[in-house]
Amino acid sequence: MSKDYSKYTISYNYEQRLAKYDIEGSIAHSKMLSKQNIITEKEFAIIQKGLLTVLSEIDNQQFIWKPELEDIHMNIEFRLTELIGEVGSKLHTARSRNDQISLDMRMYIKDLNILAINKLILLINKLVEVSEENSDIIMPGYTHLQRAQPILLSHHLLAYAEMFLRDIDRYLDSYKRADVMPLGSGALAGLPYDLDREFVAKELGFSSLSNNSIDTVSDRDFILDYSYASSTTMMHISRFSEEIIIWSSEEFGFTNLGKQFTTWSSIMPQKRNPDFAELARGKTGRVYGDLFRLFTILKGLPLAYNRDMQEDKEGFFDIADTLNLTLEIFSDMIGSLTFNKSKMLKAVENSYVLATDIADYLVSKSVPFRQAHKIVSEMTDFCIKEKKYFSELELKDYKSFSEKFDKDIFDITPLYSVNKRDTYGGTSENQIKNNIANIKSRIKLIEKQII
Fold this sequence. Notes:
- By secondary structure, the chain is mainly alpha-helical.
- The chain has 17 helices and eight strands.
- The chain has two domains: 7-93, Fumarase C, Chain B, domain 1 (Orthogonal Bundle), CATH 1.10.275; 98-346, Fumarase C, Chain A, domain 2 (Up-down Bundle), CATH 1.20.200.
- It has helices at residues 12-15, 19-35, 41-59, 72-84, 97-133, 153-178, 197-204, 213-218, 221-247, 275-298, 313-336, 341-349, 355-364, 369-386, 395-399, 414-420, 429-450, and strands spanning 138-143, 146-152, 180-181, 208-209, 255-256, 263-264, 272-273, 338-339.
- It has a two-stranded antiparallel sheet with strand order 1-2. Strands 3-4 form a two-stranded parallel ribbon.
Protein backbone atom coordinates (compact mmCIF):
# COMPACT_ATOMS: atom_id res chain seq x y z
CA MET A 1 0.00 0.00 0.00
CA SER A 2 1.38 3.41 -0.93
CA LYS A 3 1.92 5.89 1.85
CA ASP A 4 -0.19 9.06 2.16
CA TYR A 5 2.07 12.12 1.94
CA SER A 6 -0.75 14.65 1.59
CA LYS A 7 0.01 16.28 4.95
CA TYR A 8 3.32 17.45 3.53
CA THR A 9 1.64 19.96 1.23
CA ILE A 10 -1.16 21.38 3.37
CA SER A 11 -1.03 24.96 4.64
CA TYR A 12 -4.62 25.79 5.64
CA ASN A 13 -3.85 24.99 9.30
CA TYR A 14 -1.56 28.01 9.72
CA GLU A 15 -3.10 30.21 7.00
CA GLN A 16 -6.44 30.52 8.79
CA ARG A 17 -5.53 33.93 10.20
CA LEU A 18 -5.57 35.18 6.57
CA ALA A 19 -9.17 34.09 5.95
CA LYS A 20 -10.66 37.54 6.62
CA TYR A 21 -8.31 39.13 4.08
CA ASP A 22 -8.89 36.36 1.55
CA ILE A 23 -12.64 36.92 1.72
CA GLU A 24 -12.37 40.73 1.60
CA GLY A 25 -10.14 40.38 -1.46
CA SER A 26 -12.57 37.95 -3.07
CA ILE A 27 -15.51 40.30 -2.55
CA ALA A 28 -13.59 43.21 -4.12
CA HIS A 29 -12.46 40.97 -7.00
CA SER A 30 -15.96 39.68 -7.75
CA LYS A 31 -17.36 43.20 -7.50
CA MET A 32 -14.86 44.28 -10.15
CA LEU A 33 -15.78 41.29 -12.33
CA SER A 34 -19.40 42.44 -12.15
CA LYS A 35 -18.47 46.04 -12.94
CA GLN A 36 -16.57 44.83 -16.02
CA ASN A 37 -19.49 42.58 -17.11
CA ILE A 38 -17.40 39.43 -16.71
CA ILE A 39 -20.05 38.15 -14.28
CA THR A 40 -23.53 39.58 -13.74
CA GLU A 41 -24.59 41.87 -10.90
CA LYS A 42 -26.89 39.13 -9.64
CA GLU A 43 -24.02 36.63 -9.60
CA PHE A 44 -21.89 39.13 -7.65
CA ALA A 45 -24.66 39.61 -5.08
CA ILE A 46 -24.94 35.83 -4.64
CA ILE A 47 -21.15 35.44 -4.34
CA GLN A 48 -20.87 38.29 -1.86
CA LYS A 49 -23.63 36.91 0.37
CA GLY A 50 -22.05 33.46 0.23
CA LEU A 51 -18.59 34.79 1.13
CA LEU A 52 -19.98 36.68 4.11
CA THR A 53 -21.66 33.46 5.27
CA VAL A 54 -18.33 31.64 4.98
CA LEU A 55 -16.61 34.40 6.97
CA SER A 56 -19.27 34.13 9.68
CA GLU A 57 -18.73 30.37 9.86
CA ILE A 58 -14.97 30.88 10.23
CA ASP A 59 -15.37 33.59 12.87
CA ASN A 60 -17.77 31.39 14.85
CA GLN A 61 -15.52 28.32 14.45
CA GLN A 62 -18.24 26.46 12.58
CA PHE A 63 -16.24 26.13 9.37
CA ILE A 64 -15.08 22.61 8.54
CA TRP A 65 -11.57 22.69 7.06
CA LYS A 66 -10.76 19.96 4.57
CA PRO A 67 -7.09 18.85 4.55
CA GLU A 68 -7.39 17.46 1.03
CA LEU A 69 -8.03 21.01 -0.26
CA GLU A 70 -4.60 22.04 1.13
CA ASP A 71 -4.93 25.81 1.54
CA ILE A 72 -7.43 28.43 2.72
CA HIS A 73 -8.20 29.60 -0.83
CA MET A 74 -9.50 26.24 -1.99
CA ASN A 75 -11.29 25.57 1.30
CA ILE A 76 -13.15 28.87 1.11
CA GLU A 77 -14.00 28.48 -2.56
CA PHE A 78 -15.20 24.88 -2.02
CA ARG A 79 -17.46 25.92 0.84
CA LEU A 80 -18.76 28.88 -1.17
CA THR A 81 -19.74 26.57 -4.00
CA GLU A 82 -21.43 24.22 -1.52
CA LEU A 83 -23.50 27.18 -0.30
CA ILE A 84 -24.42 28.93 -3.56
CA GLY A 85 -23.92 26.32 -6.23
CA GLU A 86 -22.11 26.57 -9.55
CA VAL A 87 -21.94 30.38 -9.52
CA GLY A 88 -19.35 30.01 -6.76
CA SER A 89 -16.96 28.48 -9.26
CA LYS A 90 -16.94 31.78 -11.19
CA LEU A 91 -15.15 33.56 -8.32
CA HIS A 92 -11.72 32.45 -9.46
CA THR A 93 -12.15 33.97 -12.92
CA ALA A 94 -9.20 36.24 -13.79
CA ARG A 95 -7.28 35.27 -10.68
CA SER A 96 -4.54 32.85 -9.61
CA ARG A 97 -3.67 31.62 -6.16
CA ASN A 98 -0.28 33.21 -6.83
CA ASP A 99 -1.59 36.78 -6.89
CA GLN A 100 -4.32 35.90 -4.38
CA ILE A 101 -1.91 34.90 -1.61
CA SER A 102 0.22 37.96 -2.31
CA LEU A 103 -2.90 40.08 -1.82
CA ASP A 104 -3.81 38.36 1.46
CA MET A 105 -0.31 38.74 2.85
CA ARG A 106 -0.01 42.39 1.85
CA MET A 107 -3.34 43.23 3.48
CA TYR A 108 -2.33 41.37 6.63
CA ILE A 109 1.10 43.01 6.81
CA LYS A 110 -0.41 46.47 6.39
CA ASP A 111 -2.51 45.81 9.48
CA LEU A 112 0.46 44.34 11.33
CA ASN A 113 2.53 47.45 10.68
CA ILE A 114 -0.21 49.69 12.10
CA LEU A 115 -0.54 47.37 15.10
CA ALA A 116 3.21 47.49 15.78
CA ILE A 117 3.24 51.29 15.47
CA ASN A 118 0.37 51.66 17.93
CA LYS A 119 2.05 49.33 20.43
CA LEU A 120 5.32 51.24 20.08
CA ILE A 121 3.49 54.52 20.67
CA LEU A 122 2.12 53.08 23.93
CA LEU A 123 5.63 51.99 24.93
CA ILE A 124 7.14 55.38 24.11
CA ASN A 125 4.39 57.17 26.03
CA LYS A 126 5.12 54.92 29.01
CA LEU A 127 8.82 55.80 28.82
CA VAL A 128 7.96 59.50 28.73
CA GLU A 129 5.63 59.09 31.70
CA VAL A 130 8.25 57.23 33.76
CA SER A 131 10.87 59.81 32.78
CA GLU A 132 8.67 62.68 33.94
CA GLU A 133 7.89 60.91 37.22
CA ASN A 134 11.60 60.35 37.93
CA SER A 135 13.02 63.55 36.47
CA ASP A 136 15.18 64.33 39.52
CA ILE A 137 17.16 61.07 39.60
CA ILE A 138 20.87 61.29 38.76
CA MET A 139 22.75 58.12 37.87
CA PRO A 140 26.08 57.15 36.32
CA GLY A 141 26.11 56.98 32.56
CA TYR A 142 28.16 54.04 31.32
CA THR A 143 30.54 53.26 28.50
CA HIS A 144 32.15 49.80 28.34
CA LEU A 145 29.95 49.07 31.40
CA GLN A 146 32.26 51.42 33.35
CA ARG A 147 30.91 54.48 35.16
CA ALA A 148 31.60 57.36 32.81
CA GLN A 149 29.69 60.62 33.46
CA PRO A 150 26.65 61.72 35.49
CA ILE A 151 23.37 61.70 33.59
CA LEU A 152 19.71 61.98 34.43
CA LEU A 153 17.84 58.67 34.54
CA SER A 154 15.26 60.23 32.23
CA HIS A 155 17.98 60.89 29.64
CA HIS A 156 18.86 57.20 29.67
CA LEU A 157 15.23 56.07 29.40
CA LEU A 158 14.49 58.51 26.59
CA ALA A 159 17.39 57.08 24.60
CA TYR A 160 15.18 54.01 24.16
CA ALA A 161 12.28 56.23 23.13
CA GLU A 162 14.48 57.44 20.27
CA MET A 163 15.24 53.85 19.27
CA PHE A 164 11.55 52.97 19.26
CA LEU A 165 10.74 56.08 17.22
CA ARG A 166 13.22 54.84 14.59
CA ASP A 167 11.45 51.49 14.72
CA ILE A 168 8.19 53.27 13.94
CA ASP A 169 9.87 54.84 10.90
CA ARG A 170 10.81 51.35 9.71
CA TYR A 171 7.23 50.11 10.12
CA LEU A 172 5.96 53.13 8.19
CA ASP A 173 8.38 52.22 5.39
CA SER A 174 7.29 48.59 5.59
CA TYR A 175 3.66 49.67 5.32
CA LYS A 176 4.46 51.75 2.24
CA ARG A 177 6.12 48.83 0.47
CA ALA A 178 3.29 46.44 1.36
CA ASP A 179 0.73 48.97 0.14
CA VAL A 180 0.87 47.74 -3.47
CA MET A 181 -2.11 45.91 -4.98
CA PRO A 182 -1.00 42.66 -6.71
CA LEU A 183 -4.33 41.22 -7.87
CA GLY A 184 -4.58 41.10 -11.64
CA SER A 185 -1.12 39.62 -12.14
CA GLY A 186 -2.50 36.11 -12.50
CA ALA A 187 -0.11 33.18 -12.26
CA LEU A 188 2.79 35.25 -13.64
CA ALA A 189 1.93 36.78 -17.03
CA GLY A 190 -1.13 38.95 -16.44
CA LEU A 191 -4.67 38.06 -17.54
CA PRO A 192 -6.65 38.08 -20.82
CA TYR A 193 -9.64 39.94 -19.37
CA ASP A 194 -10.67 43.58 -19.36
CA LEU A 195 -9.91 44.10 -15.66
CA ASP A 196 -10.05 47.30 -13.62
CA ARG A 197 -7.15 46.88 -11.21
CA GLU A 198 -7.46 50.47 -10.01
CA PHE A 199 -11.02 49.74 -8.89
CA VAL A 200 -9.90 46.76 -6.80
CA ALA A 201 -7.07 48.80 -5.30
CA LYS A 202 -9.49 51.52 -4.24
CA GLU A 203 -11.95 48.99 -2.81
CA LEU A 204 -9.21 47.42 -0.68
CA GLY A 205 -7.43 50.63 0.30
CA PHE A 206 -4.21 50.20 -1.67
CA SER A 207 -2.38 53.31 -2.87
CA SER A 208 -0.73 51.80 -5.96
CA LEU A 209 -0.62 48.82 -8.34
CA SER A 210 2.20 46.36 -8.86
CA ASN A 211 4.09 47.06 -12.12
CA ASN A 212 5.39 43.68 -13.25
CA SER A 213 3.32 40.52 -12.99
CA ILE A 214 6.36 38.23 -12.79
CA ASP A 215 7.89 40.22 -9.96
CA THR A 216 4.51 40.53 -8.22
CA VAL A 217 3.88 36.83 -7.70
CA SER A 218 7.47 36.09 -6.67
CA ASP A 219 8.00 39.13 -4.44
CA ARG A 220 8.30 38.53 -0.71
CA ASP A 221 10.41 41.60 0.04
CA PHE A 222 7.49 43.17 1.87
CA ILE A 223 7.54 40.26 4.33
CA LEU A 224 11.28 40.70 4.78
CA ASP A 225 10.72 44.43 5.43
CA TYR A 226 8.30 43.75 8.26
CA SER A 227 10.46 40.93 9.62
CA TYR A 228 13.59 43.10 9.57
CA ALA A 229 11.77 45.98 11.28
CA SER A 230 10.55 43.54 13.92
CA SER A 231 14.02 42.07 14.40
CA THR A 232 15.44 45.56 14.98
CA THR A 233 12.65 46.39 17.43
CA MET A 234 13.30 43.16 19.31
CA MET A 235 17.02 43.99 19.39
CA HIS A 236 16.20 47.32 21.07
CA ILE A 237 13.93 45.52 23.53
CA SER A 238 16.68 43.00 24.21
CA ARG A 239 19.17 45.78 25.00
CA PHE A 240 16.68 47.39 27.35
CA SER A 241 15.95 44.00 28.94
CA GLU A 242 19.65 43.50 29.57
CA GLU A 243 19.83 46.78 31.47
CA ILE A 244 16.72 46.01 33.49
CA ILE A 245 18.26 42.65 34.41
CA ILE A 246 21.55 44.29 35.46
CA TRP A 247 19.91 47.20 37.28
CA SER A 248 17.61 44.90 39.26
CA SER A 249 20.50 42.72 40.43
CA GLU A 250 21.66 43.02 44.05
CA GLU A 251 25.04 44.26 42.81
CA PHE A 252 23.44 47.32 41.19
CA GLY A 253 20.17 47.64 43.08
CA PHE A 254 19.06 50.55 40.90
CA THR A 255 15.55 49.32 40.23
CA ASN A 256 12.84 46.88 41.25
CA LEU A 257 10.40 45.18 38.93
CA GLY A 258 6.73 44.70 39.68
CA LYS A 259 6.12 41.27 41.20
CA GLN A 260 4.03 40.18 38.23
CA PHE A 261 7.16 40.45 36.05
CA THR A 262 9.40 38.33 38.27
CA THR A 263 9.26 34.71 39.42
CA TRP A 264 10.47 32.86 42.48
CA SER A 265 13.37 30.45 42.30
CA SER A 266 12.19 26.85 42.66
CA ILE A 267 14.85 26.15 45.32
CA MET A 268 16.16 29.50 46.62
CA PRO A 269 13.32 31.30 48.44
CA GLN A 270 15.15 34.64 48.65
CA LYS A 271 15.37 35.11 44.86
CA ARG A 272 13.05 37.02 42.56
CA ASN A 273 14.18 36.48 38.98
CA PRO A 274 13.55 38.99 36.12
CA ASP A 275 12.18 36.23 33.92
CA PHE A 276 10.04 38.40 31.65
CA ALA A 277 13.01 40.60 30.73
CA GLU A 278 15.13 37.49 30.22
CA LEU A 279 12.49 35.91 27.99
CA ALA A 280 12.20 39.08 25.92
CA ARG A 281 15.98 38.96 25.49
CA GLY A 282 15.81 35.30 24.52
CA LYS A 283 12.88 35.66 22.12
CA THR A 284 14.93 38.18 20.14
CA GLY A 285 17.08 35.29 18.92
CA ARG A 286 13.93 33.44 17.92
CA VAL A 287 12.78 36.39 15.78
CA TYR A 288 16.25 36.64 14.19
CA GLY A 289 16.01 32.95 13.31
CA ASP A 290 12.63 33.43 11.65
CA LEU A 291 14.02 36.34 9.59
CA PHE A 292 17.00 34.32 8.35
CA ARG A 293 14.73 31.36 7.66
CA LEU A 294 12.89 33.53 5.13
CA PHE A 295 16.12 34.87 3.64
CA THR A 296 17.27 31.27 3.18
CA ILE A 297 14.02 30.21 1.53
CA LEU A 298 14.19 33.04 -1.00
CA LYS A 299 17.90 33.21 -1.76
CA GLY A 300 18.03 30.61 -4.56
CA LEU A 301 14.59 30.85 -6.14
CA PRO A 302 14.26 31.45 -9.89
CA LEU A 303 11.35 33.53 -11.19
CA ALA A 304 8.43 33.34 -10.80
CA TYR A 305 6.34 31.58 -8.14
CA ASN A 306 7.75 28.42 -6.54
CA ARG A 307 6.08 26.23 -3.91
CA ASP A 308 8.98 27.00 -1.55
CA MET A 309 7.16 30.27 -0.93
CA GLN A 310 4.49 28.39 1.01
CA GLU A 311 7.17 28.23 3.73
CA ASP A 312 7.20 32.03 4.07
CA LYS A 313 4.35 32.06 6.58
CA GLU A 314 4.96 30.05 9.74
CA GLY A 315 8.17 31.86 10.67
CA PHE A 316 6.66 35.21 9.72
CA PHE A 317 3.53 34.55 11.79
CA ASP A 318 5.79 33.62 14.69
CA ILE A 319 7.60 36.95 14.33
CA ALA A 320 4.32 38.87 14.45
CA ASP A 321 2.99 36.95 17.46
CA THR A 322 6.27 37.21 19.37
CA LEU A 323 6.69 40.91 18.66
CA ASN A 324 3.13 41.95 19.55
CA LEU A 325 3.02 40.05 22.83
CA THR A 326 6.50 41.27 23.80
CA LEU A 327 5.60 44.92 23.11
CA GLU A 328 2.43 44.60 25.15
CA ILE A 329 4.21 43.02 28.12
CA PHE A 330 7.15 45.39 27.91
CA SER A 331 5.00 48.52 28.18
CA ASP A 332 3.40 47.21 31.36
CA MET A 333 6.76 46.04 32.72
CA ILE A 334 8.29 49.50 32.22
CA GLY A 335 5.34 50.98 34.09
CA SER A 336 6.00 48.64 37.02
CA LEU A 337 9.61 49.79 37.54
CA THR A 338 10.55 51.65 40.71
CA PHE A 339 13.96 53.29 41.09
CA ASN A 340 16.33 53.57 44.05
CA LYS A 341 17.23 57.26 43.86
CA SER A 342 19.71 57.24 46.76
CA LYS A 343 21.58 54.19 45.48
CA MET A 344 21.87 55.64 41.99
CA LEU A 345 23.21 58.93 43.39
CA LYS A 346 25.62 57.04 45.64
CA ALA A 347 26.94 55.21 42.56
CA VAL A 348 27.69 58.64 41.09
CA GLU A 349 29.29 60.04 44.24
CA ASN A 350 31.37 56.96 45.00
CA SER A 351 33.12 57.08 41.66
CA TYR A 352 35.24 59.31 39.47
CA VAL A 353 32.55 60.31 37.00
CA LEU A 354 33.27 64.02 37.51
CA ALA A 355 36.77 63.63 36.04
CA THR A 356 35.78 65.11 32.68
CA ASP A 357 34.14 68.07 34.41
CA ILE A 358 37.35 68.72 36.35
CA ALA A 359 39.36 68.57 33.12
CA ASP A 360 36.89 71.00 31.51
CA TYR A 361 37.33 73.25 34.58
CA LEU A 362 41.08 73.39 33.88
CA VAL A 363 40.36 74.13 30.21
CA SER A 364 38.28 77.11 31.38
CA LYS A 365 41.46 78.26 33.18
CA SER A 366 43.37 78.21 29.86
CA VAL A 367 44.96 74.78 30.33
CA PRO A 368 45.14 72.87 27.01
CA PHE A 369 42.69 69.92 27.07
CA ARG A 370 45.35 67.24 26.59
CA GLN A 371 47.34 68.65 29.48
CA ALA A 372 44.18 68.91 31.59
CA HIS A 373 43.36 65.30 30.72
CA LYS A 374 46.81 64.21 31.93
CA ILE A 375 46.50 66.17 35.19
CA VAL A 376 43.09 64.68 36.07
CA SER A 377 44.28 61.20 35.07
CA GLU A 378 47.13 61.55 37.60
CA MET A 379 44.66 62.85 40.20
CA THR A 380 42.48 59.79 39.61
CA ASP A 381 45.41 57.43 40.09
CA PHE A 382 46.28 59.27 43.32
CA CYS A 383 42.72 59.01 44.64
CA ILE A 384 42.49 55.30 43.83
CA LYS A 385 45.78 54.71 45.64
CA GLU A 386 44.66 56.76 48.67
CA LYS A 387 41.16 55.23 48.55
CA LYS A 388 39.54 58.64 48.22
CA TYR A 389 37.04 60.27 45.90
CA PHE A 390 37.36 63.76 44.41
CA SER A 391 34.81 65.09 46.91
CA GLU A 392 37.17 64.12 49.75
CA LEU A 393 40.11 66.15 48.44
CA GLU A 394 41.03 69.49 49.96
CA LEU A 395 42.05 72.53 47.92
CA LYS A 396 45.71 71.92 48.73
CA ASP A 397 45.39 68.43 47.24
CA TYR A 398 44.01 69.91 44.03
CA LYS A 399 46.75 72.55 43.90
CA SER A 400 49.41 69.85 44.23
CA PHE A 401 48.43 68.82 40.73
CA SER A 402 47.84 72.29 39.27
CA GLU A 403 47.98 75.84 40.59
CA LYS A 404 45.03 76.60 38.32
CA PHE A 405 42.68 75.01 40.82
CA ASP A 406 40.81 77.38 43.11
CA LYS A 407 37.98 77.09 45.64
CA ASP A 408 35.37 77.21 42.85
CA ILE A 409 36.41 73.63 42.03
CA PHE A 410 34.02 72.62 44.81
CA ASP A 411 31.12 73.98 42.78
CA ILE A 412 31.41 70.90 40.59
CA THR A 413 28.73 68.47 41.77
CA PRO A 414 26.75 65.75 39.97
CA LEU A 415 23.83 68.15 39.39
CA TYR A 416 26.23 70.86 38.20
CA SER A 417 27.75 68.34 35.76
CA VAL A 418 24.35 67.31 34.43
CA ASN A 419 23.11 70.84 33.86
CA LYS A 420 26.35 72.02 32.26
CA ARG A 421 25.61 69.58 29.44
CA ASP A 422 22.98 71.82 27.94
CA THR A 423 23.84 71.31 24.29
CA TYR A 424 20.97 70.10 22.10
CA GLY A 425 20.43 66.41 22.86
CA GLY A 426 22.35 66.60 26.13
CA THR A 427 21.43 65.38 29.61
CA SER A 428 20.61 68.70 31.28
CA GLU A 429 17.23 69.20 32.92
CA ASN A 430 16.45 71.84 30.31
CA GLN A 431 17.29 69.53 27.40
CA ILE A 432 15.26 66.68 28.89
CA LYS A 433 12.18 68.92 29.00
CA ASN A 434 12.82 69.87 25.38
CA ASN A 435 13.34 66.24 24.40
CA ILE A 436 10.08 65.15 26.03
CA ALA A 437 8.18 67.93 24.25
CA ASN A 438 9.84 66.93 20.98
CA ILE A 439 8.92 63.25 21.43
CA LYS A 440 5.30 64.13 22.20
CA SER A 441 5.16 66.28 19.06
CA ARG A 442 6.63 63.53 16.88
CA ILE A 443 4.13 61.01 18.26
CA LYS A 444 1.25 63.32 17.30
CA LEU A 445 2.58 63.55 13.74
CA ILE A 446 2.86 59.75 13.54
CA GLU A 447 -0.69 59.32 14.80
CA LYS A 448 -1.93 61.65 12.05
CA GLN A 449 -0.09 59.53 9.45
CA ILE A 450 -1.72 56.26 10.49
CA ILE A 451 -5.29 57.43 11.01
